[in-house]
Each structure stands twice: as C-alpha cells, then as structure tokens.
Write a structure and sequence with these properties.
Layout (H helix, E strand, L loop, with lengths): L1 H10 L7 H13 L3 E4 L8 E7 L5 E6 L13 H19 L4 E7 L8 H7 L8 E3 L2 E3 L10 E10 L15 H15 L11 E5 L10 E10 L2 H22 L2 E6 L11 H13 L17 H5 L4 E2 L2 E3 L10 H7 L2 H23 L1 H13 L15
Parallel strand pairs: 3-4, 3-5, 5-11, 6-12
Antiparallel strand pairs: 1-2, 2-4, 7-9, 7-10, 8-9
Helix pairs in contact: 1-2, 1-3, 3-10, 5-6, 7-10
The structure holds zinc ion (ZN).
C-alpha cells in the first residue's frame, strides 16, 4: 500500500490523464482477486473492481481518487486516497473469511476538475450499493463532513465593435454588460442564502482600449449550502446576466462548464463507526461544524447511497490542502502514517458493516430520513 502511494505520488498525473495511476491500482486489485472493468462511465481512467466473498450479503463500496494538481503535484493527497481505498479493500476481502459481502472499489478520476464521481453517479454506477466510503487526508481528524453545492458557468456577452473615441455611440459595449453583472451580483448578496458564494473572473474583456469590446467572457462558480438553494442562486445569476445585457443592448449566453456538485450528506451511523475505529487507533475527531469549506464530488454519491468522507490529519493547519507543504506531507512519513490509520479504519468499518446487518439498516434509515447530520450547516440563513 505504501509502495502504491509512493508511485502515485511520483506519477502526479493530472485529471483525466491518470492512465498509469489508474492502471497501477487496477493491477494491485487484480492481484488481490478483484474483477476489474476499465473505462467505467465512459471515462477512460475510471474503473470498477469487484470481489465477492461468499454468496449474497451487502454490497460495500470504497472510492479511490488519484489525480494531482498542476505544478503542485499531490498537494491534495489523492495518492493516499487511492492507496488507502485499494489497500482497505484487499485487507477487508482477506479478513471477511467467508463473508458474505461484495466489495466494490471505484476508481474515480478528475476529482480536481470535472468531478469524476458526478459522471459515474449520473450513469447509475453506485446503484445497488449499501454503503460508500472513502477518506481524505487533511489537517484535522473529522468524520462529519459537509460541503457546498456548486455549479460553474461561463457567461458570454456579445455587443458591437466601434471606434471607442471617434464613434463610441455606434458600438455596443459587451464589457460594460459584464461589469454590470459583477455589480449586480454584489447587490444581490443580501437576498441570497447566507452561505452562497459567487466568485467570478473576467476571462475576456476586449482587445484594445480604442475598440468598443464586442465580446466579453466571464467565469463564475456559484455555491450554496445545498442543491435546492443553489438553484435559487442560479436563477438570480441568470436574471442578473439578462438584465445586464439588456442595460446596454448586448446579447448574453450562459454555458455550464461542469455538472452540478451536490452537498455532502454524511451518514450518521456509518460516521460513528468510523469514528470509533479512529479512536481505537488513538485519534480524536473534531465534531464542531465545518468552516470555510469547498465542494466535493463525493457529495453526489452521498445523495444516492449512505456515505462517509472522513478526514484524517497528515499535516498541521499551517500546511493547508493545495499547498506545497501539504504535498510534502502527502509524499512523506506523515502521509504514510495517515494512510495506515485511514486504511485500517476503512477496512474495520467495512468489516463491521458486512457483519452487522442492523448497522446497515440504521444507515439506510438515516439516509431515508434525510436532513442534515450533526455538524452540517442548518437553516435557510438569510443575512438580511
Ligand atoms: Zn482532494
């Protein structure tokens, strides 16, 4: 398992280019008796690996990630996620001893860009699972994970070029429309859900100061506490874009650049088991609500299967995710310690789920009941 994580770390392949990383994990799983299907969900670097122990029993999923970041390499520690998922699967399959259970490992690429799990979830690949689990290295130990729903858009305004000094009245300024959209988003803030975030950039704003820009392109990511509230933010964003276009007589077009990320719903009963296993390994979890969070593609899995996405600390708070110091931890002894803890806790949680039908019934009940688990943000939250 350590060798796997070291080799993934050295490969540092980017999203959707993780060919060698994916092959490495598949080879490991085949050696441990798993049947592997490559190219799951139409993604060449995704895979699904299954191993049945005994007849019948629950179907339990482990999720592997293995993409790296440009320049920074494995600064999100996905080398540890891939190795832990495959290692825990092999370990649990061995310890199941007659089962019965089916262990399914999902190779989920491109967590950092398009969210591979969202694509696999859309294709129905998680259907029939009784539980789905993974771990993510972090700067704290935490089992109650929350994340924001997120959807990214490109907006293009089309106007008309003209000499910006000699005959500006003959032009239609597309950049002015884009700037009006930025201003409108600021004004909208108080009427949107409190946790909503709508950061944007200007990707294209004209070519020369003496030409009225006939094309302006902005990129925005819209985030909110859950998909329902995200839909409200999206409607407000579209309306503001149309109004901005109208205000100068430009045309506007919106294009979604990814599939919507759903908010993470942590399954309470499964999280409690993982927490007990972490405690048995000498770790203490932080159970206070999460602050300053982003979005996860595991959120979409958690909408269809009882799921957990716990954090295991491998670095101090001063070495945050997506930084060089975190990458050093992910490739060093701290990462290996975290890997061992995570793989043990994942395998133990999986074994307990396989042997205790009541636990999975409880997990299913909590999943159906819905609602935020402890640690999740509550309420509609307007800042007005
Ligand atoms: Zn990550």
């Amino acid at each position: 398992m350590e060798r796997l994580s070291r080799r993934l770390f050295a490969l540092r392949e980017l999203s959707l280019q993780e060919h060698a990383s994916s092959a490495l994990l598949q080879q490991f799983l085949r050696r441990h008796g798993f049947r592997v299907t490559r190219g799951a969900g139409g993604l060449p670097t995704a895979f699904v690996a299954r191993r049945k122990v005994g007849r019948g029993g629950p179907r339990l999923g482990l999720l592997a990630e293995y993409d790296a970041l440009p320049d920074l390499g494995h600064a999100c520690g996905h080398n540890l996620i891939g190795a832990a998922a495959c290692g825990a699967a092999a370990l649990a399959a061995r310890l199941l001893d007659g089962g019965p259970a089916e262990i399914v490992v999902y190779g989920t690429p491109a967590e950092e860009t398009i969210g591979g799990k969202i694509v696999l979830a859309r294709r129905g690949l998680f259907r029939g699972l009784d539980a789905a689990m993974m771990f993510h290295p972090s700067t704290e130990d935490r089992v109650y994970m929350t994340s924001l729903a997120c959807h990214s858009f490109e907006v293009e305004f089309r106007g008309r070029a003209a000499h910006a000094v000699a005959s500006p009245e003959k032009g239609i300024n597309a950049l002015a429309a884009l700037l009006a959209l930025f201003a409108a988003m600021e004004r909208l803030r108080p009427s949107l859900p409190q946790e909503a975030r709508m950061p944007g950039i200007i990707a294209e704003g004209g070519r020369r100061p003496n030409i009225v820009p006939d094309r302006a392109v902005g990129r925005f990511t819209l985030r909110a506490g859950d998909l329902r509230r995200l839909a409200r933010v999206r409607r407000a964003f579209f309306a503001a874009g149309r109004a901005a276009a109208q205000s100068v007589g430009a045309r506007v077009r919106f294009r979604a650049v990814d599939l919507p990320y759903a908010e993470m719903r942590t399954n309470g009963p499964l999280a409690e088991i993982f927490k007990e296993e972490l405690q048995a390994l000498g770790r203490r979890t932080v159970d206070t609500p999460r602050r300053g969070m982003g979005s996860l593609d595991m959120g979409n899995v958690s909408q269809v299967v009882p799921s957990i996405h716990p954090f295991v600390a491998i670095a101090p708070k001063s070495a945050p995710l997506h930084s060089r110091p975190f990458a050093r931890r992910a490739g060093g002894p701290a990462g290996r310690r975290g890997l061992e803890i995570a793989a043990r806790a994942l395998a133990a949680t999986l074994l307990r789920a396989a042997r205790d039908p009541e636990l999975l019934r409880e997990a299913r009940r909590a999943f159906r009941a819905g609602g935020p688990p402890s640690g999740a943000p509550r309420g509609e939250g307007r800042s007005r």
